[in-house]
TrEMBL record:
It comes from the Bacteria. The keyword Transmembrane applies. The chain crosses the membrane at residues 12-30, 42-65, 85-109, 115-136, 148-171, 191-212, 233-253, 273-294, 314-333, 339-365. Belongs to the amino acid-polyamine-organocation (APC) superfamily. Spore germination protein (SGP) (TC 2.A.3.9) family. This is Spore germination protein. It is a multi-pass membrane protein.
Length: 374
């Protein structure tokens, strides 16, 4: 097959795209399972507190985008870490990307199986999502990034659906009491780790830095995106507390989606199905984006990144990823105990990558200060 420039760069995008990317990746899969892991009303403060820490982390990440290295992409990273270390980081990143994509894809397939397609095979649902993601990604990274505009405009307003749950007669203040723990907190680090992992994802923008304009005002876009994510998490969690109460919220599968079944509108029935369908755009976008990142990380890991990209190589990469997902589904996902381990590992790995990547980049920039590659 003829070479295809999957990573061709003709244009660079402004901070608006960084805002859209960060907000949508933070509001991807974790909001749908958020109440089950937090449960207690006082975790409202946990969302606010961790959101503020996330803002500091984004401040560190913005230093990378305001540096001379960010626009150089691979060359800039090689200058900071060297080829050997960069290949090692690519291997680690490849593993993390495969794990993240597998968890969010299988998780969304489970949602589709529960609410929309109960009789359809999960294997075929997974294949369908990957095929659509593959089709979007086949246009190349530059055009795939543009799709985030459509995704954001179609999905950001969905949070409005939950406003009725914040108003009487559904909302009662005693449902969010106590706002402070009375008898102490039982293992709060688990809930806080989940929240931190939910805010993760912006570190993957490092892979897109050549396509994002290096600028000192990138922090403004990061701040707006993170603030919007905090507001959306608070609305979702508080509305679920008002509707189910903390005593029952962990006994319901996907409370964020289940509560939509009880909304009644004269024009539209089954709001939950409509919500899941629209939210699918968000999943499809990041499936396509992660497919391209996995393909690029694999090429760097094998030392063939200087060779032209090809459709056959991308197809083989996608097939290998699908095989990994099916193996994970059959041997890990279908048993409840293994499911918990798999999700917990993804939560821990995402939290760790979000914590370390901005700090490592900033340290490397400081050490290489004044020495910029040509």
């Amino acid at each position: 097959m003829n070479p295809v420039a999957f990573f061709e760069k003709k244009y660079t995008y402004s901070g608006v795209y960084a805002f859209l990317l960060i907000n949508r990746i933070q509001i991807l899969y974790y909001p749908l399972i958020l109440p089950t892991y937090l449960i207690h009303p006082y975790m409202i403060w946990g969302i606010i507190g961790v959101g503020l820490i996330s803002q500091f982390n984004l401040f560190l990440l913005s230093k990378w985008f305001s540096s001379e290295h960010s626009g150089l992409g691979y060359k800039g990273l090689v200058h900071l870490f060297g080829q050997g270390w960069l290949r090692l980081f690519a291997v680690i990143g490849l593993f993390l990307l495969i794990m993240k994509l597998s968890v969010i894809t299988l998780g969304y397939v489970e949602i589709l199986d529960t609410f929309i397609f109960p009789s359809m095979s999960s294997i075929w649902l997974t294949l369908s999502l990957l095929l659509v993601g593959f089709y979007i990604a086949s246009y190349g990274l530059e055009k795939t990034i543009r799709f985030i505009v459509v995704v954001f405009l179609c999905s950001v307003w969905l949070i409005i659906v939950y406003i009725p749950f914040l108003l009487p007669p559904v909302a009662h203040l005693y449902d969010i009491y106590p706002l402070f723990p009375v008898d102490g907190i039982d293992s709060p680090w688990k809930s806080l780790l989940f929240i931190w992992s939910a805010f993760s994802g912006p570190e993957y923008l490092v892979c897109l830095s050549p396509w994002l304009k290096p600028q000192s005002r990138m922090l403004k876009s990061f701040t707006l995106a993170n603030t919007l994510s905090i507001v959306e998490y608070l609305i979702l969690f508080i509305s679920s507390l008002f509707y189910f109460g903390s005593a029952y919220i962990n006994k319901i599968s996907y409370p964020i989606l289940s509560m939509l079944r009880y909304l009644q509108y004269p024009v539209l029935e089954r709001i939950d199905m409509f919500f899941i369908t629209i939210h699918m755009l968000n999943f499809l976008f990041f499936i396509s984006l992660f497919l391209l990142m996995i393909y690029g990380a694999g090429r760097i890991s094998m030392g063939i990144h200087l060779k032209p990209t090809s459709r056959m190589g991308f197809i083989l990469c996608s097939l290998a990823l699908y095989a990994c997902m099916i193996a994970a589904y059959k041997w890990l996902w279908r048993t409840e105990s293994s499911l918990n381990i798999m999700i917990v590992f993804e939560i821990c790995s995402s939290a760790l990558s979000y914590l370390l990547v901005p700090s490592l980049l900033l340290i490397a920039i400081k050490l290489k200060k004044g020495r910029v590659p040509s």
